[in-house]
Amino acid sequence: MRAVTATARSFGRVAHQLWLEVTGFTFLAIAGIGAIAGFREYNKLQAGQVTGRGRLALAICFTISFAWFGVTSFWRVRRVASRKERQQAYKDGAISAGQKLDPCD
Q1: Which residue ranges of the chain lie beneath pLDDT 70?
Q2: Quick one: pLDDT at residue 100?
Q3: Would residue 105 count as lying in a domain?
Q4: Sign of CA dihedral 33, 35, 40, 44
């Protein structure tokens, strides 16, 4: 029964990491689409085809928001992985409580 639990936990961690990476990539791809739309709106504004700047501002805010969601998703992957590494090192006795895993940190 312990083997099933350990295997399920391992698969769960990997699935969670994969989920964060896929969502991070998806958000960054959508931010790229928003950036393309922002460039189009900027070109229209420079050509005098559009008088207002609302759509350009919306495209900029959209791009920044989705880029932030994507980047923070990848940061969460690293944070979760390093937390698991520290926990394993603590269990193995390689470090003491409160000590950092890498002496350079």
Answers
A1: 89-90, 94-105
A2: 62
A3: no
A4: positive
